[in-house]
Amino acid sequence: MNIMKQQRLLSIFGVSIAILSITRTFTHNPDLTSADTVSQTLGFAVPIALAGLAGIWSERAGVVNIGLEGMMILGTFGAGWAGYQWGAWAGLVAGIVLGAFGGLLLAVASVTFGVDQIIAGTAVNLLATGLTKFLAILLFTDVVGGGQAQSPPITGSLPTFTISAISGPMSTLHDKGIFLISDIAGVVGGIFYQLSILTIATVGLFVFSAWLLWKTRFGLRLRSAGENPWAADSLGVNVNRYKYMAVTFSGLLAGLGGAYLSITATIYRNGQTAGRGFIGLATMIFGNWRPGGTGAGAIMFGYIDTLRLIDSDNKNVRGLILLGALVLFVIAGVMLRSKRRNTGVGFLLLGGVMVGGFMAASNFPPEVAQVAPYITTLLVLATASQNLRPPAADGVPFRKGEGH
To answer: What angle do CA 220, 222, 226 make, to 5 degrees?
Structure first.
């Protein structure tokens, strides 16, 4: 089974690189696979990935966490408030603590008092938004460099790493423009170029979560709370305790993602999360409530954000159109092979339309890149809905001693 998974991952990686290489060749745009682009993609993906991982922890224990956005907001504020006074590391700790506090609030409301989880999560979002705006006015207005909607600059920074022995030669090879080889070199070089310690920590958290939730007794009990809490309770599992731990840790992860945003920007601002908590939920569904797929979804969002922000002449947006068309052709091939002919033909036609648009127009508005990840997520949900499997008791209230 492990060999099959490895072969599948290698196949997905190979197809992805081939699609990127074809797109770069046809658009004559080296930015699509450059080390700078890959490095920035990882940076943009971190807060989204942490929000998605936070959602996995909570929902695997059976609690829908709509409050991820609010927990990230608390994390951004905590990092800004502590960061300008005591430095980036203190800001990181404060962001984590406030995020965990938001998770604890959700656990108290939904687990102990049985408040509807959607309503409780929405309340956390509203509370976090209003509270941080009020505190920003109270704490930052009269401080040098601060204001009613922002903190003073955060002092210090967190370490970044560049392994020049790898990134340098790989970037040189990328610049040669060799099909496939240069693109692989660009990706490898970008992984080791200006790599933040929080990016490394995020990868470690994903690996740790996958091991803990699927390979340990603790993880089995936690997931049982989200699959069948009544059966778990009958076997002596303290279901509410596991729900509390999962939701609080979920808030911790979301707070870490929010702190990352403030620390990398070196300042806290109102609205800094820009909906990344909700995007994290989308990546969680994209990844079928598993760390691997969630991480891939976060990288997809981060990649599109990167291309949009570094696009000076709309070349990147045009490349995204062709890239999307090629992805649709691949999906169509998978659908046709699995004998889902109507769906496969539909994707072929849609891919053809996108290729036609790519050939006919030389410029596209930047808004195309903004909506691209959401359209991609909807397409995934439409094509893979039969294979998506949320925890069976996700969002279902649990009362000890009560039957289902």
So the answer is: 105
